[in-house]
Design brief:
The complex is a heterodimer of chains A (about 775) and B (about 260).
Chain A lengths: L2 H12 L3 E3 L1 H11 L1 H5 L2 H15 L20 E3 L9 H9 L9 H15 L4 H8 L2 H9 L25 H14 L8 H35 L3 H16 L8 H18 L11 H14 L5 H16 L8 H6 L8 E5 L11 H13 L5 E6 L5 H11 L7 E4 H10 L4 H5 L2 E3 L3 E3 L4 E10 H8 L4 E2 L4 E2 L13 H33 L3 H6 L3 H4 L10 E9 L1 H17 L5 H9 L6 H9 L9 H18 L9 E5 L5 H7 L28 H9 L13 E4 L7 H16 L4 E6 L2 H9 L8 E3 L4 E3 L5 H11 L5
Parallel strand pairs in A: 1-2, 3-4, 4-5, 8-11, 11-12, 13-14
Antiparallel strand pairs in A: 5-14, 6-7, 9-10, 15-16
Chain B lengths: L1 E11 L7 E6 L20 E9 L2 E9 L1 E4 H9 L2 H7 L2 E6 L6 H13 L3 E6 L5 H8 L4 E6 L4 H8 L4 H12 L3 E8 L7 H13 L3 E8 L5 H6 L14 H13 L3 E4 L2
Parallel strand pairs in B: 2-6, 6-7, 7-8, 8-9, 9-10, 10-11
Antiparallel strand pairs in B: 1-2, 1-5, 3-4
Classes of the chains: A alpha/beta (about 775), B alpha/beta (about 260).
């Protein structure tokens, strides 16, 4: 890392996350204008975007090679009052909460008090959502049965395909003009809507070009005043790059990176979409530029690394937009889930790993930044050395890159009805979510608390935390004659809550389609232009809605406990077990020890326990999979938690696996913390018993003690372990290579472990930034030091 | 027929080639002072009071060391890890205790493995009648062969038995061309002196097929077990070898052309 990159990296690491009212003011100003009242909703959204891009502050940091910030400075985070209008209290909580805080100064609060809150109260999309949802949705949401991603952030969950590395926005404007010309006002009843949407996209294209022109001017001016000759030349070159991109297709490696970065800023300024945005298959998109310039001697590997490092720092300058309430609990992190994909296969199915793949892996190791997240796609066609190179990074305990199975991802996408080409161009984004890059909107709609639903089943529909009847009366738990009867009651409850969730999600989708179209994002994702339809209205070629199941490991162990002790061994009655759990196992140490240490557990390749994992999976899958959404697509499942397993645990009482009340649940498809005692190979065997190919992604967290990776043999074994999991159709695996001892020390003396990064769930985070519950949970996960 | 097994370890990456499953047979004829699995010496399973902690409070439970398995039961467990064996060129390793102490059972299990094309490895002290060793060798792809001491008297002192038969069996296995990795627990003041190491080197140089030595630095991790199981611990005062000493010994063998690995 050279001095320039070191300095930029330091600047990024030291920047203080703070709230900027700039965007909120600009969007309010525009919404109040006369013009805003005279146009259709899509055009209004596009003009608002253009207004922001025309007036927001230009930021060029000293020495940087890629320019552009979402806010006025690194880590200055804008707000989106048209989606969620923060109250003064929200701002104060954001400012003062102990973890994942955003400083809000008095000026920001004043602007909010005087300008933002008075205008947007009653108009924000969030308020519309809560006004339109049924009471049973509200009840379930408040009880912690599920969360709702779109309540304060816009749908995003998509990734750029290769098209924008081959086109400029002027090319898109031509396509739009052609589509407008083609509109058939005689036969197409939607022609007017389409024209408005296409006009909006055209305005959004102008807005991003205009934004780049402002950078062009600013860079030129900086160059004129620059005394350092080298930097002067550099600034002139950067200015020339902003003349070309994003209006025209990029021609060089540097242009391609700057081009993407303008696009990225456009997407995350238009709204606050989930998973920010993501260039996706970066080594594939950049390789043609890299290969050509290296061949022609115009770029060196070192030069490419410097540009990539500068690009990496840009991501790190952009913490997630502010999240509050339940959304902050389910996703308590600054990370905003841009996940760089490396490797995998090309469109023709051949091995896609190239020289640049390894260059980017070097950058990931050297930068050691939280953002962007990174992953490798491993196909059976990729060489072992690709995985081994990655293992050397994982060995350092960074938690990145995570490791994905390309061959499984392709089958998942084919199973969802995508073409083979679109499937091969796909990958995983966010934490582990499968998607067809450049052609699909795949929205996460919310986490779904499987363990809580079982708790409610055991209480005949009553939530024991509140005493309220929020579920079905599915039968007195003491009266079940067989384990299957109990399972059938649970299945009814899952269906009941899935129905509530799906109905709510369909309402929310329509509210976004109506009120918050995203013409800029629509430019990027096929086939929004040819369909003349917005991304939020089903304009994409594929439209998937995911519900993310949480607590598979916990619930499997609970079901296994009941089957084993009550119905098979007949050692305890269900009455005795329920009473003990309802009393949080007070005075029942021996019973609790039996449940924890003397009961088959998921994660040990024990078919008795793992059979219940399959039941849990199938019941959830059948309740959700294939249900239609409002965009012509379907609901699907995936299994990942972010930090919701901590939140969901906090609303769930003591459980029959021996877990105490309010403690975290298991995450992803990982075994409950500490329940796996036979090492990583047994975990992999258990986890592969569910059918990953019928999901849109599963998350498996695997701890490994650093000593297991000390030798070459250790690294090779890790490669083989990954190959074995993927041969069994496993979707994803991530590694935490750190000892519980280290983590305990870090918890005691955070000041000495400021740079300790751990894998949480689908992303890495600074250990110090995690809540104490989550820290404890990760320590427990890591405890079993044998492996 | 049943065998007595006291542990099964999955994802064992230091017990032979590839990713392995290591099955620990109970019962051993030797009594090495430094043994870190003293609970494995007696053949029969035994039960003791184990203290578990639940939220810091002690719960006493009965724990049994050693469990009986039929050949089929064991094979079912071995086969669970096939995918890892296949991906890594690994297989099953029989360790202990001393697996040869349960000769009939071991032979049946080995035969059953070979019938299923599973790579087999025997981690052994080498103490057995040579005709039995010969029969076992037919179904064993790889040996991890312990040498404790080159001096027979010293060997007897620290393990309870002489070393002639052990060294003779090693010569025999080498003569029939078996893959053998030598395992040597390096114990300061007991078997790490120059003379002993030079004798070992001389002995190994005579063998035709032995090329790998796994040096296992003595560690005290197992010492608490002697207390837990009420056994006499004779190693008080013996230190773990220093990193420098390990490196020196390693160089001695690697300079002589052997592949040396440390730890496991």
């Amino acid at each position: 890392m050279n001095a320039r990159i070191q300095q930029l990296r330091e600047q990024s690491l030291n920047a203080i996350p703070r709230i900027s009212a700039e965007r909120a003011l600009l969007v309010t100003e525009f919404y109040k204008s006369d013009l805003a009242q005279q146009v259709s909703v899509p055009v209004k959204r596009a003009l608002a975007f253009k207004h922001i891009m025309t007036h927001k502050k230009i930021c060029i940091n000293d020495g940087e090679l890629i320019v552009g910030e979402r806010g006025p400075a690194p880590k200055a985070v804008p707000t989106y009052p048209e989606i969620t209008v923060h109250s003064i209290e929200d701002l104060e909580i954001l400012d003062s909460r102990p973890k994942v805080w955003y400083k809000a100064d008095e000026e920001t609060k004043r602007i909010y008090r005087e300008e933002i809150i008075p205008y947007w109260t009653g108009k924000s999309n969030r308020e519309k959502i809560f006004n339109n949802l049924d009471q049973n949705w509200i009840d379930a949401y408040e009880a912690g049965i599920f969360t709702e991603f779109q309540e304060q952030r816009a749908p995003g969950h998509t990734v750029l395909g290769k098209k924008m590395f081959q086109k400029g926005f002027l090319d898109l404007k031509k396509e739009i003009a052609l589509e407008i010309e083609r509109l058939d006002f005689f036969n197409d009843p939607e022609a007017l809507n389409k024209r408005e949407e296409l006009k909006a996209m055209d305005i959004a294209a102008d807005a991003i070009i205009l934004f780049a022109e402002r950078y062009l001017d600013a860079l030129e001016e900086l160059a004129n005043n620059e005394r350092d000759e080298d930097r002067k030349i550099e600034l002139m070159q950067m200015s020339a790059i902003c003349r070309r991109v994003p209006a025209h297709a990029p021609q060089t490696f540097h242009e391609a990176l700057q081009h993407y970065w303008f696009i990225h800023l456009g997407v995350i300024t238009e709204v606050n979409p989930w998973d920010s945005f993501n260039p996706g298959r970066l080594d594939q998109h950049l390789y043609p530029f890299y290969e050509k310039e290296i061949r022609e001697g115009k770029l060196t590997e070192e030069g490419a690394k410097e540009l990539l490092s500068s690009f990496w720092i840009k991501f790190n300058n952009h913490p997630a937009p502010t999240k509050i309430g339940v959304t902050a609990k389910e996703s308590s992190t600054y990370t905003d889930f841009a996940l760089i994909n490396l490797g995998g296969v090309k469109e023709d199915g051949s091995d896609a790993v190239n020289d640049l793949t390894f260059v980017i892996l070097d950058v990931i190791e050297e930068m050691r930044l939280l953002q962007p997240s990174s992953m490798i796609q491993v196909s059976k066609k990729n060489p072992d050395r690709f995985i081994k190179r990655t293992a050397r990074i994982l060995k350092t305990g960074f938690g990145q890159p995570s490791v994905f199975n390309t061959d499984a991802i392709i089958q998942e996408l084919l199973n969802q009805g995508k073409s083979i080409t679109d499937a091969r161009n796909g990958g995983a984004s966010g934490c582990v979510e499968t998607g067809a890059f450049g052609t699909e909107s795949y929205i996460l709609t919310g986490y779904f608390n499987l363990t809580k639903i079982f708790e409610i089943t055991l209480h005949n529909g009553i939530d024991p935390m509140t005493g309220r009847q929020i579920g079905l009366q599915s039968g007195d738990p003491l009266a079940f004659k067989s384990f299957d009867e109990l399972l059938a009651a649970y299945e009814k409850q899952v269906k009941y809550f899935a129905d509530i969730k799906i109905k709510g999600s369909n309402i929310i989708d329509q509210l976004f389609a109506e009120n918050v179209p995203v013409p800029f994002l629509s430019l990027l994702i096929d086939d929004c232009i040819t369909n003349g339809k917005d991304y939020n209205s089903g304009g994409a070629r594929y439209n998937t809605s995911y519900i993310q199941g949480v607590g598979l490991g916990s619930l499997t162990d609970i079901l296994t406990s009941i089957k084993y002790h009550v119905f098979d061994q007949k050692k305890y009655t269900i009455k005795k077990l329920l009473k003990a759990a309802d009393e949080n196992f007070k005075g029942a140490d021996e019973l609790r020890n039996e449940l924890i240490n003397n009961t088959p557990k998921y994660g040990n390749d024990d078919d008795y326990a793992d059979a219940q994992a399959v039941s849990v999976f199938e019941i959830f899958h059948n309740a959700v999979n294939g249900r239609p959404n409002t965009k012509g697509g379907h609901f699907r499942i995936n299994m990942l938690p972010t930090t919701s397993h901590v939140y969901f645990g906090s609303v769930t009482g003591a459980t029959l696996d021996g877990r105490l009340t309010k403690k975290p649940l298991s995450e992803g498809i990982s075994p409950f913390q500490g329940a796996d005692r036979k090492g990583p190979s047994a975990v992999i065997k258990s986890a592969s018993k569910i059918d990953h190919l019928r999901t849109g992604g599963t998350l498996l967290n695997q701890k490994l003690t650093p000593s297991l990776l000390e030798s070459e043999k250790g690294l090779e074994s890790m490669v083989q372990l990954i190959r074995a999991y993927f041969r069994l159709d496993g979707h994803h695996i991530q590694f935490n290579v750190v000892t519980a001892k280290t983590l305990r020390k870090a918890q005691k003396h955070p000041e000495n472990y400021k740079d300790l990064i751990v894998r949480v769930a689908g992303y890495s985070d600074y250990f110090n930034d995690l809540g104490e519950e989550l820290q404890d949970e990760i320590i427990r996960r890591t405890e079993n030091e044998v492996f | 027929m049943q065998g007595v097994i006291f542990d099964i370890k999955h994802y064992a990456i230091h017990d032979g080639p590839g990713i392995r499953q290591t099955i620990f047979f109970k019962g051993c004829a030797l009594g090495c002072w430094w043994c870190h699995n003293p609970e494995s010496r007696s053949h029969e399973p035994f039960t003791y009071q184990k203290k578990e902690k639940i939220d810091g409070r002690e719960v006493v439970v009965k724990e049994t060391v050693g469990k009986r398995y039929s050949v089929n039961e064991l094979l079912k467990i071995i086969e669970k890890d096939m995918v890892f064996f296949e991906e890594s060129g690994g297989g099953v390793t029989f360790s202990g205790g001393e697996p040869l102490q349960q000769y009939d059972f071991l032979l049946k299990v080995l035969k059953a493995c070979k019938k299923r094309d599973i790579h087999t490895c025997l981690d052994t002290t080498g103490l057995a009648q040579q005709d039995k060793m010969a029969e076992i060798a037919k179904y064993t792809d790889h040996f991890l062969y312990d040498i404790k001491h080159m001096d027979s008297e010293q060997h007897r002192k620290y393990t309870g038995v002489n070393n002639e038969a052990i060294l003779e069996n090693l010569r025999y296995l080498d003569s029939i061309g078996k893959n053998i990795w030598i395992r040597y627990v390096l114990v300061p003041g007991i078997n790490d002196d120059e003379g002993n190491l030079i004798n070992l080197l001389a002995f190994l140089k005579e063998l035709k097929h032995v090329n790998n030595i796994n040096l296992l630095p003595y560690h005290k991790i197992g010492s608490h077990k002697y207390h837990r199981f009420g056994l006499e611990y004779k190693m008080n005062g013996v230190q773990e070898p220093t990193a420098e000493r390990i490196e020196e010994v390693s160089r001695l063998f690697s300079n002589a052309g052997f592949e040396v690995s440390i730890g496991g």
